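Ops channel
N.P.: pipeline sanity check, posting one input/output pair.
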């Protein structure tokens, strides 16, 4: 079963490389992903490029290289990292702490797993998210510089990065802040964020009660990292509860519900990535630990089965849908293109056009490879209480 998922992940990788990847501004030794297929002129020329999408593109390449290391994949990681730095113009950082955390995670994994030197970049990004900690203002860290909005999509990946770079106390502080502030007691799910108006006391924060799949994903990843590194049972217990909440509220027939296009195209893939991490890395031998690992793995594999079944085959390569439980749609040049407003990328009229959707599908295939391996080792292909 794991070999089959490796083959599917290879196909997803090749599809993204074929349709989306080209040199940045025709510069030798560069490689970035065009944000749509088919692209319009400003997309082909990287006038639009979406920093955090490229970070996940890099992370997917690291997944592929970890699964099956090749010199070509290692060279591609180096090219993408170099191109990201060039296209960002002002350095590795920007004004969004979630963006910087995502890139830091991709580069840290590239360095740790593929022995590539990104120490300077990782140091810059780690310092940015570490120094943004502002408990006196209500957080947590804010979504972006000079913002009064403190959210899970910034604190979650930042905590994972800080845990992996040894800043455990700060990472644990972020985890405890999310659990105290943004966990919905009614569902057990993690809410998007909270806004603290300037000059108002901290308890007067206004919750944004939106529920996004990637908020659950980064929280699972953060708590699993801390469970591995710290002898603090609360982190394992939070993982147990959140996996159950995801299964109850964010799936239909065992398949993660659709995230849409634009930025949302990455949301479900991120959840799948960290469910696979739970399946592979969550420590503990209690019945609750075992159940969390098995259920997390099954959610990933069942979602990947659905996404693969509902893909289109275009010139022999997969095109994934924005909703894994429904048939993918074919984009074209006449479709409305994605737009960037208010710090968010909104979907194209046919969301399958967006790079984010295809990266989400690829991320899911890589996650299924990991999750299937855990099910094979434990002899449990099917599990549902």
């Amino acid at each position: 079963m794991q070999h089959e998922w490796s083959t599917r992940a290879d196909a997803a990788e090749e599809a993204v490389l074929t349709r989306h990847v080209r040199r940045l501004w025709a510069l030798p030794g560069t490689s970035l992903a065009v944000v749509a297929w088919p692209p319009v002129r400003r997309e082909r020329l990287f006038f639009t490029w979406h920093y955090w999408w490229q970070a996940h593109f890099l992370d997917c390449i690291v997944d592929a290289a970890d699964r099956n290391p090749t010199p070509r994949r290692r060279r591609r990681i180096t090219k993408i990292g170099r191109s990201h730095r060039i296209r960002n113009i002002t350095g590795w950082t920007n004004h969004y702490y979630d963006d910087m955390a995502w890139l830091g995670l991709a580069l840290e994994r590239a360095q740790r797993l593929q022995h590539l030197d990104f120490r300077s970049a990782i140091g810059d990004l780690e310092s940015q998210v570490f120094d943004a900690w502002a408990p006196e203002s209500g957080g947590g860290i804010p979504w972006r510089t000079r913002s009064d909005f403190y959210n899970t999509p910034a604190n979650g990946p930042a905590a994972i990065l800080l845990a992996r770079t040894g800043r455990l106390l700060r990472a644990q502080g972020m985890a405890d802040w999310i659990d105290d502030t943004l966990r919905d007691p009614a569902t057990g799910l993690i809410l998007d964020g909270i806004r603290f108006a300037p000059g108002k006391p901290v308890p007067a924060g206004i919750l944004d009660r939106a529920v996004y799949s990637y908020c659950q994903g980064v929280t699972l990843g953060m708590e699993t990292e801390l469970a591995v590194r710290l002898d603090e049972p609360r982190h394992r217990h939070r993982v147990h509860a959140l996996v159950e909440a995801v299964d109850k509220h964010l799936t239909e027939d065992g398949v993660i519900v659709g995230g849409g296009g634009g930025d949302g195209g990455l949301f479900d893939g991120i959840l799948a990535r960290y469910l696979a991490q739970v399946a592979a890395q969550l420590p503990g031998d209690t019945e609750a630990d075992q159940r969390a690992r098995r259920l997390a793995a099954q959610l990933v594999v069942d979602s990947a089965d659905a996404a693969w079944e509902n893909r289109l085959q275009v010139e022999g390569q997969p095109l994934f849908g924005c909703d894994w439980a429904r048939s993918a749609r074919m984009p074209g040049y006449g479709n409305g293109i994605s737009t960037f407003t208010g710090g968010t990328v909104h979907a194209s009229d046919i969301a399958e056009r967006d790079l984010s959707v295809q990266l989400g599908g690829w991320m899911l295939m890589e996650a299924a490879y990991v999750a299937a391996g855990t099910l094979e080792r434990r002899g449990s292909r099917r599990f549902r209480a």
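N.P.: looks fine end to end. Residues 64 and 70 are 9 Å apart (CA to CA).
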